[in-house]
Amino acid sequence: MSILIGEQEYFKGIGKIAYEGPSSDNPLAYRWYDENRVIAGKTMKEHLRFAVAYWHSFCGNGSDPFGGPTQFFPWDKKAEAVDRAKDKADAAFEFITKLGLPYYCFHDVDVVDYGSDVKENENRLQTLTAYLSEKQKASGTKLLWGTANLFSHHRYMNGAATNPDFNVVAHAGAQIKMALDATIALGGENYVFWGGREGYMSLLNTNMKREQEHFAQMLKMAVAYGRANGFKGKFFIEPKPCEPTKHQYDYDAATVIGFLRQHDLLADFSLNLEVNHATLAGHTFEHELQVAADAGLLGSIDANRGDYQNGWDTDQFPIDLTEWTKSMLIILEANGLQGGGINFDAKIRRNSTDAEDLFHAHIGGIDTVARALVIADSIRTNGEYDKIRKDRYASFDAGQGASFEKGGLSLENLFDHAAANGEPAMISGRQEYLENMINRFL
Ligand code: XLS
Ligand code: NI
Ligand code: NI
After folding, report:
1. d(CA 88, CA 94)
2. Euclidean distance between the first and final Cα of the chain, in Å?
3. Could you report the per-residue pLDDT of 223-282, keeping only the tens digit for each?
4. Ligand 1 nearest-atom number relative to CA 243
5. CB of 194 sitting under 6 A from ligand 1
6. Residue nearest to atom 5 of ligand 1 (CA)
7. Looking at the annotation, which residues are catalytic?
8. Hey, what domains does the chain have and what are their CATH numbers?
9. pLDDT tens, 339-354?
10. How far is the CA of 172 from the centre of ligand 1 (A)?
């Protein structure tokens, strides 16, 4: 992949980020991410399928509820929306190709600003789709997923597909159609639904059943449209329990799986799991990965982290090696992500205002995840971890335990077995031993 620079160079003085190995002290080099290194039969690039998120990296400007922008982008200067959008695309592809990552992800309105004229929005997005398509061809970068932002505009304050007003629901559908068109035209490998306003602020004014049925209806229409127009990829739902609404219908992995099953959507959908959303739901990230993996629905990841001291989606870059090692154990055991990749849904802090900060953030996240992959593979290759977990269930591998698993026993059989065998010996769960073992490999 060669560096792609547009009319002007936006990240001057920073070249291609190279792999230099763990002993390097160059802050603008990878110490663990060596895209060609083979781990468990696949290259790191194939395992991780890293993506840069357009919204945080090129649109998010540091503003928060207490203050305006702190990050003033040179690509955000021109008067016309389409001109600004092209500059932004130049900056994005320069950045992505300097990092050497294979993918990017976007919302429709990250790519180009929307107004309230649907047809004009479509023209804008189509113009930018053509522009991005050229950039993809020239660089080899691919689109991991596209999505529609159905949460920022004021019309969505009561929800998008779950809005009580059909006129708003129609706007949501229009945006999904256009975002799907762009995703398909750009060879996007997946399409994401994150239901930012699909939930409620108060049950007093909400018909939850009806809203959820509307949501399922919208998903079915999206699948029908996508498939009719040549989209072969997966649709993902990204669970999150709250924020911006008090309660979001796509609460967590288990809730979403139940919803997909109820509405017969399992064939086309799987899950895009985000670290910080897991913690907001009161789960570990590993828990969410395991729930999805067990259902065969581990699709994709939004990599970031929250803050232990507060309870909102701080979207910080991932740096926790222990968390990622435990996550990688689950991902490897599940045979990898099904169709998705690892998208950095993360932003630099409001007071990180150097152009280099965006590189440091990504390099740190990329190296954390790559290093976790190496460690998790060593743990699995060593074998003891798998053996301990397998042995713990050995009583179900033969005899009465095996019959139980196959549904061959009755409650009377259990009574007889318990009566004949007496009080079971105590068997330690050996949690501390396992925790120490993981640390030995870090
Ligand atoms: C917000 C979500 C959002 C989705 C894409 O919390 O993580 O960024 O990933 O709409
Ligand atoms: Ni996300
Ligand atoms: Ni998020």
Report:
1. 10
2. 31
3. 999 999 999 999 999 999 999 999 999 999 999 999 999 999 999 999 999 999 999 999
4. 6
5. yes
6. 194
7. 107, 110
8. 18-382 (3.20.20.150), 400-441 (no CATH)
9. 999 999 999 999 999 9
10. 16
